[in-house]
Design a protein that fits this description.
Number of helices: 1
Largest sheet: 5 strands, antiparallel
Shape: globular
Oligomer: single chain
Strand content: 35-45%
CATH architecture of one domain: Sandwich
Number of strands: 12
Helix content: under 10%
CATH topology of one domain: Jelly Rolls
CATH superfamily of one domain: Jelly Rolls
Length: 159
């Protein structure tokens, strides 16, 4: 008999989307209006790493252009076509393609949906504590404190 409060298996698209589209402060949160995340790792009680099934509607972006200090990231495209933007390049990603971002390298990135169809991809990231995020294109910095992201302007003033 299974006494766990977590399921053994499920259909990913049936997991309820996260009701909050972004933890960014405004005006940045509004930029996530075309993004929907299903937090699959949380459903299973995973604590060492997170897994999200993310849908980007046409015109959507995965996140602000960013880089992590401690958390590695990995993405795998399931459906649709996205553009991976990094400081050096824009790469067309199609189903079956993946990308990874080692923490601490300063390599900023995000995905953009420049098509007329939805893009679905898996995001996998570790949950290293005390991570910091830089946003080269925006007046924003973030740090993780006790599982909560704290956002400040680049001059250190709070949002």
């Amino acid at each position: 008999m299974n006494h766990s409060k977590y399921p053994d298996a499920l259909i990913a698209v049936e997991v309820m989307p996260n009701p909050i589209s972004s933890v960014y402060p405004e005006p940045f949160a509004s930029e996530m209006a075309h993004r929907e995340k299903r937090r699959l790792g949380n459903v299973f009680g995973l604590t060492n790493f997170g897994v999200n099934l993310t849908r980007l509607a046409p015109g959507g972006i995965s996140a602000l252009y960013h880089a992590h200090s401690k958390q590695d990231e990995f993405i795998y495209v399931l459906e649709g076509n996205a553009t991976l933007e990094t400081e050096n390049d824009s790469v067309h990603l199609s189903p079956g393609m993946c990308a990874g971002f080692k923490a601490g390298t300063g390599k900023a990135h995000h995905l953009v949906n420049n098509t007329t169809k939805d893009v679905y991809f898996l995001e996998v990231g570790d949950r290293s504590s005390q991570d910091e995020c830089t946003y080269p294109n925006d007046d924003l910095m973030a740090r993780e404190e006790n599982d909560v992201w704290v956002f400040v302007h680049k001059d250190g003033k709070a949002y």
